[in-house]
Amino acid sequence: MKILLKNPRIIEPSENIDQVADILIVDGIIEIIAPKITASGNVQEYVLDGKIVAPGFIDMHVHLREPGYEHKETIETGLVAAAVGGFTAVCCMPNTNPPIDDASVIKFIKEKSEKTLNGLVDVHPVAAATKRREGKELSPMIELVEAGAVAFSDDGSPIDNSEIMRHALEYSNMLGKIIIQHPEDRSLAKGGVMNEGLVSTSLGLPPIPSIAEEIMIDRDIRIANYVGASYHAAHISTAGSVEIIRLAKKKNIPVTCEVTPHHFTLTDEAVRSFDTNTKMNPPLRTKADVDAIKEGLRDGTIDVIASDHAPHSFDEKEVEFLEAPFGIVGLETAIGLAITELVIPKILSINQLIEKFSINPRKILSLPTVKIKVGEKTNLTILDFQKKWKVDAQKFKSKSKRTPFDGKTLVGKSFAIINNGRVHFSD
Amino acid sequence: MPLQSKHLLGLEGVSRDDIQLVLDTARNFREVLDRPIKKVPTLQGKTIVNLFYESSTRTRISFELAERRLSADVVNFSVAGSSVAKGETLKDTARNIEAMKIDIVVVRHSSPGAALFLSRLMNANIINAGDGTHEHPTQALLDMYTIREKFGKLEGLNVCIVGDISHSRVALSNIYGLQILGVNVSVCGPATLIPKNIQKLGVKVYHNIDDAIRDSDILNVLRIQLERQNRSFFPSTREYHNYFGITRERLLKSKKPITIMHPGPINRDVEISADVADGEQSLILQQVLNGVAVRMAVLYLLGTGN
To answer: How far B119 CA sits from the closest chain A CA (Å)?
Structure first.
């Protein structure tokens, strides 16, 4: 099967490519990159004037919820949302039921994902760092890696115990895998539902202080540095966290981190509505934090943009603020928010955006870098940076429609993805 | 003149005119309470549900009395005897009540924003009778009424709220309401019970009760919840009483008389000594009496408004 992409702008930061040319794909492999290709026979041709072709995007922080919470999301609905959102790959988090602390769960997820859209979206499971994600005993990491785990995390449940964290880092590092920590000192965050600040005081909502996150990152970096292991802080949200990681990177400590689109778009002022779609963990922070995160993205302190796609059913979120679960969906708005909030205001270049959505996460996870080169397997995200669109949560492919961005106008969107020999359009 | 809002969810952002209107209207109802027949036909034919998800004696009885004295039909709904115990969501409860064509809902709930949540689901007028640690607007209104009754004004007075500010809906509503009417509001308590950003609300913070007494005309003393000791907010009720408790000796050090208020229920000899609570400067029982009049005013203004 032949696919011909006509006239897109091809941007491939890892090879310093930025050119307008045609791409001919034959049986999933890039055959020719050149201006004005003409192909004979059965060719699917797509005219991509003004569109950008980039190496396939990966969302390294996604909750697919299956097995166990199929009323929130299934592997199928989650992966269709990823495809429409512009992602050719996702990392799924282990807080399922049963959790991903056993090779059989990875096997189940892999089998299910290969049946969704004929395996269009690659799924890289993040396995639990400890059994049952309890932070007490290490999970069988070697077996999990053999089954396909790409990293370890007790996501949602921070590894509180410093000795367990040390051992998790040492053991996973031996396997060339990172520990992804949900950084939170639970004794400080206990009972909290939003950022501690003027807004929490005004609303009487129990607070989560910024130091709950920063203390954990600080501790973890010390352990990682001490044992010489790679550490990744998930969804950082405070100016202090950016500063701690910036300093650690200057000292060449192997630390990386990610940020979610909602943490660079919204502040805790949004919680004044008591809208449960503004309740997430870590919570929305202040404008000073948002500014620091943008600076961290710009100067490279923050490596990755990941959605922390955390679907919940409509009814679960349709309750009092204290009772509502943390989390919102993000797969279908992540790229639009990143372009609108970061690229258009010139905080990030298009190249940097591609690095944070494609190149850096794969590097951190030791996955092969996707290249747009003759002879390479096709793995592409095609972007439309001009497209102005309005978020309509009811049209989400995700089972969950819970987002604070419903109705928001964004500029820039995924146009299509091509992966594993298949093309899938976003609209 | 009706109130600008269909609901009374809190005092944050409420207009000065609306607060004045409630207080002025309450004065008329306060007179009703001194009559031999304490009932007026104002809300005849209106149905009010008191939806109480937290135990409450004072507030619930005060509302019920106010409702009955306005001749409304009253339905009480409390957690123990309702479907809530069987696991019904607040949303479903709200929809059921809505289907029964209730005119006014008075709600007490442990979650901040619960009254706002109901107002988005129902056509009825919603009155917040306390939403977690957020607001308790009728308590603040009755406090303001009681102060105005004694001092003849509010503007320029110095009110200090003493105690557990972090976990108090009374404190927040008092801060918002009193500031709108030009009162200088301060708070006093141990640092662990004062939220980190309270100064940004324009409130002065004291950690020394004698300093607070020296600078205040009125102390509004809050109940110390004894279970707060369990999360190390303060070492013991003994230490709290010794360093933050309002006692006669402390008050005698002040050159001017200090008016004492308390929203109840009182922990005698913890946050306030018994002789102060029952003393001649205490307005505690006037607060209770005025509470009925203020709630009648709120019910009347919302129930007969648009």
So the answer is: 12
Nearest residue in chain A measured CA to CA from B130: A204
Q: Across the 427 residues of chain A, what is the mean pLDDT of every consecutive 10-residue run?
A: 96 94 96 93 94 98 98 98 98 98 98 95 98 97 98 96 98 98 97 97 97 98 98 98 98 98 98 98 98 98 98 95 97 98 98 98 97 96 98 98 98 97 93
* CB < 8 Å to A204, chain B: 112, 131-135, 169, 172
Whole-model pTM: value is 0.94
CB proximity A318 to B under 8 Å: yes
Query: Which residues, 6+ apart, have CB-to-CB distance to A116 below 8 Å?
Result: A75, A76, A79, A80
Residues of A in contact with B173 (CB under 8 A): none
Residues of A with active-site annotation = 308
The per-residue pLDDT for A54 is 98
Name which of B249, B176, B180, B174 is nearest B218 in CA terms. B174
Task: Classify each residue of B146-177 as buried b or exposed e, where b means 16 or more C-beta atoms within 10 Å of its C-beta.
Answer: bbbbbeeebeebebbbbbbbbbbbbbbbbbbb
Establish how many alpha carbons lie within 13 A of residue A76's alpha carbon, considering only the half-sphere containing its beta carbon.
7
Among the partner-chain residues B91, B116, B169, the one whose CB lies closest to the CB of A318 is B91
